[in-house]
């Protein structure tokens, strides 16, 4: 090794390299992890300068009295390529295509595309807790705010598919058509800007079912106009896909938008058909006795019943719901009602002593919330997917995620179409 005697390789025991550039827009930590996972994939040069800077920053932080040369940083970086820790979901060794993952969350799109032998060459996500989960499972730290030019500048050329589950936002519709310029100030504009610059072969966008009626249909109409007319993509009519039809017992409807660059001469695309086998809640429930912390207090159960009764007296169907074992869960979403509309009966608990600060006694009716792992299964995440955050954050992350089986079924159709060109 060329490292100075006082700077030995043992100093790499801190695998996370949590060194930030204060006051800089550079995301050297994300660049560092992206470089390690892409050094053989033809895109490493996009990340190497800042990856080197990250390693150099690390040594300068550890050894403030030493002058760290570029040679030392280079040698350390090459060493680390072969010292990566194993991650639960590594990229395929011989990928068949490349994709990028925008608004990545905890990696639902990535799981689906990796299962089809795809290699993720760029990912972005702004939520700090989602980044922790993403890194724990894929070994990469996502880049941050995709609205910033500095973040967009990290995106490599030459990838095949752009994936994005962007938020639903209203457009100004300043012009008569509702085109590219009218989407400024929204996150779709940033997606469109990346598509315009990088020109991927295919795009796969996901959004809530309400996108179809949002702003009286103007939002979706503008999105389709931008993709078809301004950006030059063949985009068939978007389709509402339900997770329960693709291998998970969750009634979750989402709009899928698929597109192909027009020069590829793709003129038709068929979304996947529902699978024949149907799953029920029993297929995803915990096999072992669940902690008492997931059981509702008697006080809380009564509050939910009174709340539901008040709405029922007004003719509303709003309120909690207990899903039978042979039933299908409601959509898992952020917020309390995502859990309260997916309660279950579970009579295995023997010790009713509370381990959290609840009001009243633990109910004896067997009523509990689903666990974060059960929510993960409802979204199609495998059991070896690591949950490294608090329960509150885990519910939020899985509620915000995509249903992996529905994404993967559609992604398979996209890749089949690209392979046929």
TrEMBL record:
- Catalytic activity annotation: a 2'-deoxycytidine in DNA + S-adenosyl-L-methionine = a 5-methyl-2'-deoxycytidine in DNA + S-adenosyl-L-homocysteine + H(+)
Identify its protein family.
Belongs to the class I-like SAM-binding methyltransferase superfamily. C5-methyltransferase family.
Instruction: Name a Pfam family for this protein.
Output: DNA_methylase
Recorded GO terms, molecular function?
DNA (cytosine-5-)-methyltransferase activity
Superkingdom of the source species: Bacteria
Print the keywords alphabetically.
Methyltransferase, Restriction system, S-adenosyl-L-methionine, Transferase
What organism is this sequence from? Answer: Polaribacter glomeratus
Which top EC class is named for this enzyme in its record? transferase
Protein known as: Cytosine-specific methyltransferase
Gene3D superfamilies for this protein: 3.90.120.30, Vaccinia Virus protein VP39 (3.40.50.150)
Enumerate the active-site residues: 168
Biological processes per GO annotation: DNA restriction-modification system; methylation
- List the taxonomic lineage: Bacteria, Pseudomonadati, Bacteroidota, Flavobacteriia, Flavobacteriales
Tell me its EC number(s), please: 2.1.1.37
**What InterPro entries does the entry give?**
C5-MTase (IPR050750), C5_DNA_meth_AS (IPR018117), C5_MeTfrase (IPR001525), SAM-dependent_MTases_sf (IPR029063)
């Amino acid at each position: 090794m060329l490292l100075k005697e006082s700077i030995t390789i043992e100093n790499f025991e801190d695998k996370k390299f949590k060194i930030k550039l204060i006051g800089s827009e550079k995301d050297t930590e994300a660049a560092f992890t992206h470089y390690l996972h892409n050094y053989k994939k033809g895109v490493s040069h996009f990340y190497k300068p800042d990856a080197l800077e990250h390693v150099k920053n690390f040594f300068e932080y550890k050894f403030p009295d030493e002058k760290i040369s570029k040679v030392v940083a280079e040698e350390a970086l090459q060493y680390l390529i072969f010292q990566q820790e194993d991650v639960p979901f590594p990229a395929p060794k011989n990928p068949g295509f490349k994709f990028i993952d925008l608004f990545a969350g905890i990696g639902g799109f990535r799981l689906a595309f990796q299962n089809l032998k795809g290699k993720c060459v760029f990912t972005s996500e702004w939520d700090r807790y989602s980044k922790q989960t993403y890194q724990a499972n894929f070994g990469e730290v996502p880049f941050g705010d995709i609205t910033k030019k500095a973040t967009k500048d990290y995106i490599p050329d030459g990838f095949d598919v752009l994936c994005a589950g962007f938020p639903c936002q209203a457009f100004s519709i300043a012009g008569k058509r509702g085109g590219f310029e009218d989407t400024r100030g929204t996150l779709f504009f940033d997606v469109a800007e990346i598509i315009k610059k990088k020109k991927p072969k295919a795009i796969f966008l996901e959004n809530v079912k309400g996108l179809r009626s949002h702003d009286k249909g103007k939002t979706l109409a503008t999105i389709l106009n931008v993709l078809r007319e301004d950006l030059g993509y063949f985009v068939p009519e978007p389709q509402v896909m339900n997770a329960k039809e693709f291998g998970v017992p969750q009634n979750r409807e989402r709009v899928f938008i698929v597109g192909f660059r027009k020069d590829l001469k793709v003129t038709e695309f068929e979304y996947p058909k529902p699978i024949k086998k149907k799953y029920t809640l029993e297929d995803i429930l915990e096999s072992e006795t669940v902690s008492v912390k997931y059981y509702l207090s008697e006080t809380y159960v009564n509050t939910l019943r009174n709340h539901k009764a008040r709405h029922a007296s007004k003719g509303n169907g709003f309120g909690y719901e207990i899903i039978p074992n042979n039933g299908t869960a409601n959509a898992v979403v952020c917020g309390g009602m995502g859990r309260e509309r997916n309660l279950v009966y579970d009579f295995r608990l023997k010790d009713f002593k509370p381990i959290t600060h609840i009001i009243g006694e633990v109910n004896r009716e067997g009523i509990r919330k689903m666990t974060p792992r059960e929510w993960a299964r409802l979204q199609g995440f495998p059991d070896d997917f690591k949950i490294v955050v608090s329960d509150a954050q885990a519910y939020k992350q899985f509620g915000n995620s995509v249903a992996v089986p529905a994404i993967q079924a559609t992604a398979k159709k996209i890749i089949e179409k690209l392979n046929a060109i």
